[in-house]
Amino acid sequence: MNAARFHLVRPRVGEVACGDGAIVRDEGGRTLLAVVDALGHGPLAAEVTSLALTCLARVALDGGAVGVQSELNDALRGTRGAAAMVCLLEGERLTGCGVGNVELRTDPRSVPVVLSPGILGSSVRRFRSFEGAVPRGSRVLLFSDGVSGTRLRLDELRALDPEAACRAIVQRFAYPHDDASVLVADVRAP
Ligand SMILES: [Mn+2]
């Protein structure tokens, strides 16, 4: 494990099933960090997210973030589809691939994020990857569009550990009308 981390999902107000999901997985010196937001909400969206999380729990990580997204794209064919941010942390290097409305922030140094337009499972033309340095002590945040990023400042949440930071973000910035997912990881060592 090379990062302290926590993730939290919360269904839209009035709903029990959640169409957002998150996963962290360590394997062979790499850490997979991902959030998934299935189209729509409720039980049908939750089914798609469950499929996505099953795929992410098993997928090989040696194909990089694009390889993971490509497998996810195949796994979600025939479903209503999803957006997802997938990042791989290897030492102090982060590579990522995000499809649809999902966000990645890093603090203190930002990683230039390039998103791939489309919907996983049906309409992604080309997976674009991005990468950057996340030196030890950096914080990495992934979140779905159920969270408003406009006033969200990672540096203001520095005093909070990953779990408290996730709870604060959902409490302050999650929209009541959408499912929300947030994942925070602190990079510990190369
Ligand atoms: Mn959403």
Provide an overview of this structure.
This protein is of the alpha+beta class and 190 residues long. It has a single domain (3-187), classed as PPM-type phosphatase domain (Phosphatase 2c, domain 1, 4-Layer Sandwich), CATH 3.60.40.10. It is built from 3 helices and 10 strands. Strands 2, 3, 4, 5, 7 and 8 form a 6-stranded mixed β-sheet that branches. It is globular, with a radius of gyration of 15 Å. Manganese (II) ion binds at residues 37, 144-146, 178-179.
Map the helices and strands.
Elements: E1 3-10, E2 20-27, E3 30-38, H1 42-58, H2 64-75, E4 82-90, E5 93-99, E6 102-107, E7 115-116, E8 130-133, E9 139-144, H3 162-173, E10 180-187
Parallel strand pairs: 5-7
Antiparallel strand pairs: 1-10, 2-3, 3-4, 4-5, 5-8, 6-9, 9-10
Helix pairs in contact: 1-2
Bound molecules: manganese (II) ion.
| Average pLDDT for all residues | 96
* SSE string, helices as H and strands as E: EEEHHEEEEEEHE
- CATH first level: which class? Alpha Beta
> How many strands, which pairing sense, and closed or not: the largest β-sheet?
6 strands, mixed
Rg on CA atoms, Å: 15 Å
Helical run tally: 3
Count of all domains? 1
Distance between the termini: 10 Å
CATH topology: Phosphatase 2c, domain 1
Structural class: alpha+beta
Could you tell me which ligands this complex binds, including any ions or cofactors? manganese (II) ion
* Share of helix, binned: 10-25%
List low-confidence stretches.
Answer: none
- Based on the structure given, which CATH architecture is correct? 4-Layer Sandwich
Beta-strand portion reads: 35-45%
Let me know the CATH homologous superfamily: PPM-type phosphatase domain
Number of β-strand runs: 10
Shape descriptor: globular
